[in-house]
Design brief:
The protein is of the alpha+beta class. It folds into three domains: 117 residues, PAS domain (Beta-Lactamase, 2-Layer Sandwich); 79 residues; 170 residues, 2-Layer Sandwich (Heat Shock Protein 90). It is built from 13 helices and twelve strands. The longest helix is centred in the middle third of the chain and has 54 residues.
């Protein structure tokens, strides 16, 4: 081997050199004096911050923080802790030269120059991607926990609904027999009528509980959602009242979906009634349809869903209760005004139809509840026969 070849780097040396350069580009080291003024920096400063090293020399390292963090004194607190302890580690948002924010891991170490003056070395690593990955994992875990909680509540509610329904059947039969025997007694007949009304109310509540627990028998039909909404505009306006302006925003060319038309109507009337009550009978309601790609409920990639959203101009739903609004018997209404089963019925119907229900903020400023229904795979002409075959 000649003298020249001994000085040529091997392939492994090239790989290690490239890895080292990649680490340098994701890491910046700043040299500060004891007052936080920047004296120097490595080449990584330009890669992370967008500043040339010469631009930062002589400036306070406060310029690397957002205006809000500067006003709160975040940079001053870091300086105070590193002066006291000699070493400080932290994770916080910083600001690049172009004003964009990124998540950074900071390590500040205080030592002494050879000449005797103190200095602080500040190592900055851009952990934005890692932070976002952790955030997504956390959100996925929370979503899975919510789904498990709702599933457990659904099973419990389904069992209670069946037991309650059996009791109501016995009570209703007994009332029918008493009505036949004492039809001549006016006072008794009034009491029996009240009891029958109570049984009917209990039966409606049972249906709502069954809807949440996905125990109701759906009769899905291939339907054009826009046609259903357009045909019921007059009904929606009557439900909301004269003080509420109801507007339809329907996307063109939506594919058909397989759903139970009667249950869809019940869910929409439920949501419209909630919006009306939340706004005190005066405001605006927007019914919107869209086609969206969403993660498939079975976790097998994305799929097409038709979204139906009811949004209003009311006070909205606080983020602290958004995870619980679909649970049965949860309500924000005063005692005696509502059973707390309306949104749980909407959730159960959407889930049993192969979709989902979500709550968020409307473009009108209030709450928005969206139901997602999977795009039907059957040809549009197979509605009636397919519905009969799918009936439980």
């Amino acid at each position: 081997m000649n003298q020249q070849s001994r000085h040529l780097p091997r392939h492994d040396d090239d790989s290690r050199l490239m890895q080292g350069m990649m680490q340098l580009r994701s890491c910046a080291i700043l040299e500060l004096d004891d007052d936080g003024l920047i004296r120097n920096g490595t080449a990584g400063v330009a890669a992370i911050y967008g500043y040339a090293r010469e631009e930062l020399r002589g400036r306070s390292f406060a310029c690397l923080f957002s205006r809000a963090d500067q006003e709160r004194g975040v940079h001053l607190a870091l300086l105070a802790r590193v002066r006291e302890r000699g070493l400080e580690q932290s994770a916080c948002p910083l600001v690049r030269r172009d004003g964009t924010r990124f998540r950074a891991a900071l390590t500040l170490e205080r030592d002494v120059f050879e000449g005797g003056g103190p200095r602080i070395l500040m190592v900055v690593r851009d952990i934005t991607e890692f932070f976002q990955d952790q955030k997504r994992v956390h959100e996925a875990q929370e979503s899975a926990m919510r789904a498990q909680r709702l599933d457990a509540l659904g099973k419990l509610t389904l069992e209670l609904a069946h037991d309650f329904n059996n009791l109501l059947s016995v009570i209703a039969s007994s009332l029918d027999m008493l009505s036949a025997r004492r039809a001549e007694d006016e006072g008794t007949r009034r009491l029996l009528d009240l009891a029958h009304l109570a049984v009917e109310r209990g039966t409606r509540l049972t249906r709502q509980m069954l809807a949440f627990g996905r125990g109701q028998a759906l009769v899905p039909q291939l339907s054009q959602v826009n046609d259903l909404l357009a045909a019921s505009q007059a009904l929606y306006r009557r439900v909301c009242g004269d003080g509420v302006q109801v507007t339809l925003d329907l996307a063109d060319g939506l594919p058909p979906v397989a759903l139970d038309v009667g249950q869809l109507e019940a869910a929409l009337l439920n949501l419209l009634g909630n919006s009306r009550d939340a706004m005190g009978g005066s405001g605006r309601v927007l019914l919107q349809t869209r086609l969206e790609q969403r993660p498939h409920a079975a976790g097998t990639g994305d799929a097409g869903y038709v979204r139906i959203t009811v949004g209003d101009s009311g006070p909205g739903i606080g983020r602290d209760i958004r995870d619980t609004v679909f649970e049965p018997f949860f309500t924000t209404k005063p005692d005696g005004e509502g059973s707390g089963l309306g949104l749980s019925q909407v959730h159960g119907f959407a889930a049993q139809s192969g979709g989902r229900a979500e709550i968020g903020t409307s473009v009108l400023g209030g709450a928005a509840v969206s139901m997602y229904f999977p795009v039907a795979q059957d040809p549009p002409g197979a509605s009636a026969q397919a519905a009969g075959e799918r009936k439980p």
